[in-house]
């Protein structure tokens, strides 16, 4: 594993045909704040996050995952990572340079081994943010992103070797083998996870809430609003975090969570959890069972953006 130059998760960018419907959902129902909306592009911030935005929406003819963005500490680290990736034959979308997105900064983009676009940046302006109040059931920040891959072992090796991610835990099934790998780039249990799936796609994006009460209030708001629930509410064993999964208007699975585990990286040893045990999927036993419906929704549609960088 190379030296870790990635510091944290920044944002997830989605392209959607029905842009107006998606924008309405993420702002009025999901609880994100529009910071810039212009010409079919919307940058949506989480109230408690210093990141300029946690979700970017782009109007497009086809639904796709545009990119996943991570942070680095310094321009020297960005340059070193770009040089390392290029030397290892990883295709770069462009060389490091000035960012044209809100908050500016310095960064570059590349394709991972499945062809999804990944962005790394530093020196992005800190957004004015605040501590959420008791009972305020809107996202504090983007917690983690999970991706589907038909070649998950190759992806895990890619992110470990090239980006310095570390394995926290693995989920397995007696009949299907290893199914999900949780990867961290700081003390949080995971900022990225890779799931075995039939095609390359977004599995889900997860948003941290202030606490259990706010997590439940947000879950209830979506249920009352008629948003389709996929799975939850419950509490996972891997990561020890709560979960409520819903579908956005374009069929992407998104999650409210809280209390993701913080690890002592010096002493942590990865677990291999058997998720045929119901207590592994949900320690509380309150969620609907993990079944074919839940799995199918999380597979999502095949990603149309493989090895095609987004235009902006």
TrEMBL record:
Organism ancestry: Bacteria, Bacillati, Actinomycetota, Actinomycetes, Micromonosporales
Protein name: Oxidoreductase
One Pfam family recorded for the sequence: Glyoxalase
Annotated ranges, domain VOC: 8-123, 141-259
Organism of derivation: Paractinoplanes tereljensis
């Amino acid at each position: 594993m190379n030296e870790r130059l990635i510091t944290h998760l920044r944002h997830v960018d989605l392209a959607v045909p029905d842009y107006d419907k998606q924008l309405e959902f993420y702002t009025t129902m999901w609880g994100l704040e529009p910071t810039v909306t212009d010409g079919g592009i919307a940058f949506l911030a989480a109230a408690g996050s210093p990141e300029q935005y946690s979700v970017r929406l782009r109007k497009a003819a086809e639904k796709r995952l545009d990119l996943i963005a991570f942070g680095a500490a310094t321009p020297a680290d960005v340059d070193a990572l770009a040089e390392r990736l290029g030397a290892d034959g990883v295709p770069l979308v462009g060389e490091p340079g000035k960012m044209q997105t809100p908050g500016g900064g310095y960064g570059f983009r590349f394709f991972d081994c499945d062809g999804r676009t990944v962005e790394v940046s530093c020196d992005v302006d800190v957004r004015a943010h605040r501590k959420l109040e008791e009972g305020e059931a809107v996202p504090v920040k983007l917690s983690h992103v999970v991706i589907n891959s038909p070649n998950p072992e190759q992806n895990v090796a890619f992110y470990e070797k090239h980006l310095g991610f570390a394995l926290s835990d693995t989920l397995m099934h007696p009949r299907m083998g290893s199914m999900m790998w949780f990867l961290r780039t700081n003390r949080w249990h995971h900022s990225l996870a890779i799931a075995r799936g039939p095609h390359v796609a977004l599995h889900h994006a997860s948003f941290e809430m202030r606490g259990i009460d706010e997590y439940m209030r947000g879950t209830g708001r979506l249920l009352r609003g008629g948003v389709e629930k996929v799975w939850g509410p419950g509490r996972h064993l891997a990561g020890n975090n709560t979960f409520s999964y819903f579908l956005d208007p374009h069929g992407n699975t998104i999650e409210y969570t809280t209390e993701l585990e913080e690890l002592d990286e010096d002493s942590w040893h990865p677990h291999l959890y058997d998720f045929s045990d119901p207590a592994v999927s949900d320690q509380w036993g309150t969620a609907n069972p993990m079944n074919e419906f839940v799995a199918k929704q999380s597979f999502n549609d095949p990603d149309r953006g493989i090895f095609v960088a987004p235009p902006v």
